[in-house]
Known about the structure:
Blueprint: E1 5-10, H1 16-28, E2 32-37, H2 47-54, H3 70-76, E3 80-86, H4 88-96, H5 102-109, E4 114-118, H6 122-126, H7 128-139, E5 143-144, E6 148-151, E7 157-161, H8 165-178, E8 189-195, E9 199-200, E10 206-207, H9 214-225, E11 229-235, E12 245-250, H10 253-263, E13 269-272, E14 279-281, E15 302-304, H11 308-314, E16 322-329, H12 333-344, E17 348-353, E18 364-371, E19 376-383, H13 384-403
Parallel strand pairs: 1-2, 1-3, 3-4, 4-5, 8-11, 8-13, 11-12, 13-16, 16-17
Antiparallel strand pairs: 6-7, 9-10, 14-15, 17-18, 18-19
Helix pairs in contact: 1-2, 1-8, 3-5, 4-7, 8-9, 9-13
This protein binds cytidine-5'-triphosphate.
Amino acid sequence: MGKPKVVLGVSGGIAAYKACELLRRLTESGHDVRVVPTAASLNFVGEATWAALSGNPASTEVWETVHEVPHVRIGQGADLVVVAPATADMLAKAAHGLADDLLTNTLLTARCPVVFAPAMHTEMWEHPATQENVATLRRRGALVIEPAVGRLTGKDTGKGRLPDPEEIFEVCRQVLRRGVAAPDLAGRHVVISAGGTREPLDPVRFLGNRSSGKQGYALARTAVARGARVTLIAANTALADPAGVDVVRVGTAVQLREAVLKAAPDADVVVMAAAVADFRPAEYAGGKIKKKDGEDPAPVALVRNPDVLAEISADRAREGQVVVGFAAETDDVLDNGRAKLRRKGCDLLVVNEVGEARTFGSEENEAIILSSDGSEIPVPYGPKEALAEAIWDQVTQRYTSRRA
Ligand code: CTP
């Protein structure tokens, strides 16, 4: 099998320079990349850069090498087309099917998955014209990644920033791996909690756990690649924000509960992947707790935290909402899992065995997905994103079986 063929479309925005890094990531990971820049984008990054970095010609017009019929062949032969940055003008052209240069022609001939990574000023992104164009493209099966929030050109900040090239690359990798043109979570809003809560004892100490957040982030990344709108409620994680994800940062179980309850009414799916502390110190010492010579330390009294998973499972914020929980067990994994699924009242429970060297912080995971309908799907040891995909498969199956 040859290298997967990727077309990198670059339209005329200042973020075009970031596409160089995306191109590098794609070529270094074994993809054959053909860059198709728009004429306007060459004001930001020149043709020579694209040709040198990709090892392929980079033309903007349909009138070059006409005998090769590039306006048809490039799109037809692609396994993935990614447009980064996609300007408001490019989204409009794509939504309306214009074909006045090589990139827009390519978009019309491609039958593979198409990813747009928009970048523009907030006003342009929020304009109803742009929003309608984005909705049109999504309806037709394209994956349009939500822009990031942050510094824009000049002094402005807001929504409209191109996500980090590394994270756009992640989306491309996921989409290529699935190889399916239609994103099956399109139009769905998924809320995912990730990481581990910290319950403060005093200004410098806390009760915490060993969760890294990697499984929750893998769920967020794969959900974006399957077309979902994603809200990620991240408790004390040190991971980069995935592209296209709205990240809400929290610290304690109580803050996590608040964030989940705020996002849940609008969610089609809620996945509680966070390790939520069951207890918190009954009292918070405003100043650092000091040791006293000759005295034993005072015992720490704990109180129960709310059980967020049980609460959202009992009070479904929306009809048909799918609630997914996780169970980390050290012994009697399956029996404990089955009992927990009933106790918590969720639709799916992902049970995995944990221990010092297993799961926490690792890139890999192994689990069984227990369903309230009685099915038990084992997912073999493998990357956390493979488990994430298996979870989304179960979630989407619930939607399809309900419709049937
Ligand atoms: N969870 C939650 N709120 C809590 C504790 C846990 O929402 N206060 C969620 C976790 O996000 C996870 C699931 O419940 O999805 C299971 O967590 P786990 O710690 O394994 O279960 P516990 O309820 O703590 O059960 P036990 O103490 O019996 O293991």
